[in-house]
Amino acid sequence: MSRQITSLLAIAAVAVSLATPASATAKEEVDCTQVKCIALTFDDGPSKYAGQLLDTLKKEKVKATFFLEGQYVKSRPAFAKRMADEGHELGNHSYKHPNFTELESWAIRSEIQKTQDVIKAATGVEPKLLRPPYGMTSITSSEIAGEFGMPQILWTAGSKDWSSKNEEAIKAQVLEVAEANGIILMHDWVKQTVDVMPKIITLLKRRGYTLVTVSEVIKQYDIQPGDTFPLPDGWER
């Protein structure tokens, strides 16, 4: 009798395991003070190529950070939802990509709030990071980011993909600027970036990098809402 009960318990345990969705399992913690981390970030999406990029990231088992424009989340909500469902980090990149340094305070707030609302509606996730369009920021936009409880996230280096639109050039640039705790600017609307991503990921891994989200990189620093990271030239913390 006891042998039968044991067998039934074992079968039940397997059934529970199979019924548990992947999203319910504990996320593996990465300590970027102990391993060589790098964060790939993609601006201006989700683009029409987002599905292909997400397929690559899923196959390679890496996470990225997507700074999304509200207008494209509204037109492609399924891609935004898939990003969130597959464990990628979502950031706010304004609604229509205006230069924040040329806007009045109320307009900056509107751009941020509209994007928060549309991302939350599409994904159930409320972004915790803001990337101002073009990386153009000011004390005013920093203070407004603080009102929303978000730091402003810039980048340590760019892929220059929007300019070159060449697979080999994009790959070479990323490998040249890659560094521990680097935050790399890329764009998922550049098809060449999406096409060359498998090679970039393979080569970064080969060089010892662990590909993580921005939040995993910056958690070792004392980044507060309203802070800008990395600091623009001439700014003081």
UniProtKB/TrEMBL annotation:
Signal sequence region: 1-26
PROSITE patterns xrefs: NODB
Annotated Gene Ontology cellular component terms: membrane
GO molecular function, one term: metal ion binding
One GO BP: carbohydrate metabolic process
Pfam families listed in its UniProt record: Polysacc_deac_1 (PF01522)
Top-level taxon of the source organism: Bacteria
SUPFAM superfamilies tied to this protein: Glycoside hydrolase/deacetylase (SSF88713)
Record key words, sorted: Hydrolase, Metal-binding, Signal
NodB homology domain mapped to chain residues: 36-212
Protein name in the entry: Peptidoglycan/xylan/chitin deacetylase (PgdA/CDA1 family)
Organism ancestry: Bacteria, Bacillati, Actinomycetota, Actinomycetes, Streptosporangiales
